[in-house]
Design brief:
Elements lengths: L1 E5 L19 H9 L8 H14 L3 E5 L8 H10 L9 E4 L8 H5 L2 H11 L12 E4 L3 E5 L17 H13 L6 E5 L9 H6 L5 H10 L4 E4 L6 E7 L2 E7 L15 E8 L2 E10 L4 E4 L2
Parallel strand pairs: 1-2, 2-3, 5-6, 6-7, 7-9
Antiparallel strand pairs: 1-10, 4-5, 8-9, 10-11, 11-12
Helix pairs in contact: 3-5
Length: 291
């Protein structure tokens, strides 16, 4: 099975944004958009990304959060249209990031789930029953979609998975007899330590607990986003090792080799994983294999 990991698309929709939308935490995000981040995630790059993924035609695509920039309704509409060629419960899994839960209104209205809930929990499920994690048994691979997204205050972007979500995950994996299958977990916030400022403002608050619980459940790969830099490391417990991998942003408009747009492709076969990366070449305006 071939799994593609995309992340941090940060789709913005200028056409539907109104001045009143910025009378809250979005004032900071709006300032970023008119200064340094205005062209950081152009729609053209998102379109080329989707074209490239469609051409590669993986068995399943996961998107590890921050599909929108400011969690505006128009942004959710636009990104759902952009992802439409990949659509379907068996084909696409999208989890929320902190930018998809940017304001109290977005959180209270469950704006992300209104657009992507059926992809996570199935068309036949009722919204009142939707609780993270969403678990998809795809045959050779199990996808575990967790949420670490919470509305936070200005200048804050931290997250938390929570004890309840981890307990539900363990119960469901055991009840559905999925513990022995190759499992890929998804969470938005990064699992590695960063500098002191990011640790205070943008970390996963229960990082150690998440890693310990997932290792105990013998998860094989844990995918994250959030940092816009590709990152990977192994964590081990007894005779089991879990790979933690961040793809970086898949739509970052940058000449910096560490930040340029990219996405990962993981080939799972006979319980083993082989990971390759496609990186955007701004000169030729296309994605190419990272050598």
């Amino acid at each position: 099975m071939l799994i593609a990991q995309l992340s941090d698309l940060h789709v913005f929709d200028r056409e539907t944004a109104q001045v009143s939308d910025f009378f809250n935490k979005r004032a900071i995000g709006g300032l970023n958009l008119v200064t340094g981040r205005r062209n950081a995630h152009p729609i053209e790059l998102t379109e080329r990304l989707i074209e490239d993924v469609t051409r590669i035609d993986p068995d399943h695509v996961v998107v590890t959060g921050d599909v929108t920039n400011l969690s505006l309704p128009g942004e959710f509409q636009r990104v759902s249209r952009l992802l439409r060629p990949l659509w379907g419960y068996e084909r696409l899994t999208v989890i929320p990031g902190n930018h998809d839960c940017y304001t109290q209104g977005a959180q209270d209205e469950q704006r992300f789930e209104r657009f992507f809930g059926e992809l996570l929990f199935g068309q036949d499920s009722a919204p009142e029953t939707w609780r993270y994690p969403a678990i998809k048994d795809l045959g050779d691979v199990v996808i575990v979609a967790m949420s670490s997204a919470l509305k936070t205050g200005p200048f804050m972007a931290w997250g938390r998975v929570g004890q309840g979500q981890l307990d539900r995950l363990e119960r469901e994996l055991r009840d559905r007899d999925l513990l022995d299958k190759f499992t890929i977990g998804l969470v938005h916030h990064n699992l590695h330590k960063r500098d002191k400022i990011h640790e205070m403002t943008a970390s996963l608050r229960d990082r150690d607990e998440v890693l310990a619980r997932l290792l105990g459940l013998r998860m094989n790969i844990l995918c994250h986003g959030h940092t816009h830099r590709a990152h990977r490391f192994d964590v081990s417990l007894e005779n089991h090792t879990m790979l933690v991998i961040g793809s970086g942003s898949s739509t970052q408009n940058s000449m910096d080799p560490e930040r340029v747009a990219r996405y990962n492709l993981t080939q799972v076969e006979n319980g083993e994983a082989r990971i390759r990366t496609r990186v955007y070449d701004p000169t030729h305006r296309r994605f190419e294999w990272l050598v």
